[in-house]
Each structure stands twice: as structure tokens, then as C-alpha cells.
Amino acid sequence: MKIDSPPQILHSRNLHRVGYDFSVLVQAHPPLSHYVRPNAYGDASIDFANPQAVKALNQALLKHYYGVAVWDIPKNYLCPPIPGRADYVHYLADLLAESVPHLNPEQVRLLDIGTGANLVYPLIASHAYGWQCVGVDIDAKALRNAQQIVEGNGLQQQISLRQQDKAESIFKGVILPGEQFTLTLCNPPFHASAAEAQAGTQRKWRGLGKKPPQALNFGGQSNELFCAGGEAAFLSTMISESRQFGRQCVWFTTLVSKASNLPQVYRELKKVQAVTVKTVDMAQGQKQSRFVAWTFQAELSKNRI
């Protein structure tokens, strides 16, 4: 049986480098079988424009590879692609191995900004590396769903959740006085408005060869998709706030969806006097992504980062 594999170049430790083996995934999560059909090449696949099919695929992937037996998301919430999310986590592990090589993985504390209803980053990080994870979100409904995932899988000792009460803040109010984190990660909202998000959704549907729906998106709430000023404004706030917590976190990191925002990011990081800045490129076929990491701790430079 051939494996349906969208062209992608993933991290060497990414469990999804060989693509989707649907025979194995259906065994892990039998409901996935309702959506598996031959694609144009005669290989087993699913309709990636069908939100129920994508959710079933995620449930199978999380169950088979990460031991997550209970996982669901409310209707119209973001259903992220698991392989790309895993790549971010693995490259973060590389960053730690290079900069703090003697750190025990069980001592790592990860702060996920905008964890969402899906909780995917903490699920992968806790399983793959044994990290302690704190997920933060502004959406109470998303956090209630994430808490159900935590409890349904008995992960209360590894994953905890916090609500950000102030829309204008990112780290303020969620990093407590004296608290220490090893890493932060974030997948920021990258649209500046609902109209821009709608246009992006329509392009995505056309890319899948489907007629765009009238609804905004079958995968994302407003706070997941857009914010005032878009990605650039969000990143500016994050960088500005990070300086205040520079001794409480080893590495701050964030995805930067738009390469055109990188010059501004570097200017902002210079302004707040980040000691070391590192950009990590990631690739999945035609899709190029990257995250930027920065630290205020000068002692890390001794490790030649």
C-alpha cells in the first residue's frame, strides 16, 4: 500500500516524515475509515477540505503517535496540522540542546501562548520530551475544552492552563512573580481583520480545488485568526513585554508567518536589547515557515549560539 504524503521536508525526529499510513491510523482510530478514499493517484487519502475528515485524522495521529486517547475540539475552532506543529517542538528541543545541553528534560517548562482548544503543542511536547507545559489563552471556551483534553488523558501533572484576562497583554498577568520558564512558543494570529482572514480562507479553499464557503473559516475563531494590526502588531507587543521577563525565561520564541515582518522583528529585538537572536527556518514542501528565538541571558553566548 502506498502512503499518501504531501511533499514536505520535516525535522529528522518528526514522526510524520514518511507521510500518513492510513492502514495504521485507521487501526488506531477506526472512525477515520469513514473518510479514507483513493485520491487522484489511487492512493489512500482524505478530503482535506472536509473539517470532519481532518479532525478524524488528527485524532488518529494524536492517538497513535502521542498516546492521546481523548481529543476533540468545538465546532469552528482551529484544527491544526500535526506534522508542522511537531516540527516547531523538535526544533525547540534542538535549541535547548545547543544552548543548555546539560538541562534535564524534566526540568524544562514550556509556556504556550495561545494554546487554543486543541492544545496540540503541549500534547506533543509533553509526550516527546517530558516537558512541563503551561497553556495560555484568552478564550474561556477554548480553555474549558483544553482542560477536558488534559483530564481525559490524565495529564494534570504535566500540563496546566491559564487564562489571559487582558486582550492587550501577552506575558503580563500569566507569568507569575518569581516564576521560571525555559521556553515560550507562539503561533500568532496573522491577519489584521476579519475581511483579511476571509480572503485568506477563500484562497485556501481554492487551492484545494473547492468552492469557498460563505462562513469565515471551518478552522479558527476570531482570536485565532486575526487581531488589530495583524501579526506585526502582535509580535511587537510580545517583544516589548518579553524584556520585562528576561530573567524569568531562557528563550522566548514565536512563529513568524510573514517573512516580510522579519526586518521589523529584528529592529524591535535590537530596541529591547536582546542578547542573542536566532531564526530557525522550517520547510514543508512549498510552504516555508520559521520561528524567531531570543534571550536576554548573556551567559548563553558561552555555548556559541
Please provide a written account of the structure.
Helices cover 34% and strands 17% of the residues. It has helices at residues 22-28, 51-66, 82-99, 120-129, 140-152, 194-207, 222-225, 230-242, 262-271; strands at 37-38, 44-45, 109-113, 132-137, 159-163, 181-186, 249-255, 276-284, 287-295. Strands 5-4-3-6-7-9-8 form a 7-stranded mixed sheet, covered by helices on one side. The chain has a two-stranded antiparallel sheet with strand order 1-2. Helix 4 links the parallel strand 3 (109-113) and strand 4 (132-137). Its EC number is 2.1.1.181. Pfam families: Methyltransf_10.
- The count of strands amounts to 9
The major sheet is characterized as:
7 strands, mixed
CATH class, anyone?
Answer: Alpha Beta
How far apart the termini lie comes to 44 Å
Integer-rounded radius of gyration: 19 Å
Strand content: 15-25%
The residue-averaged pLDDT reads 87
Q: What's the arrangement of strands in the largest beta sheet?
A: 5-4-3-6-7-9-8
Q: Name the poorly predicted regions.
A: 1-7, 191-206, 214-218
Number of helices: 9
Shape: globular
CATH architecture: 3-Layer(aba) Sandwich
Our count of domains comes out at 1
| Strand-pairing-aware structural class | alpha/beta
Examine the coordinates and then state which fold CATH places here, giving the name of the CATH topology.
Rossmann fold
Briefly, what is this?
Keywords: Cytoplasm, Methyltransferase, rRNA processing, S-adenosyl-L-methionine, Transferase. Specifically methylates the adenine in position 1618 of 23S rRNA. By secondary structure, the protein is an alpha/beta fold.
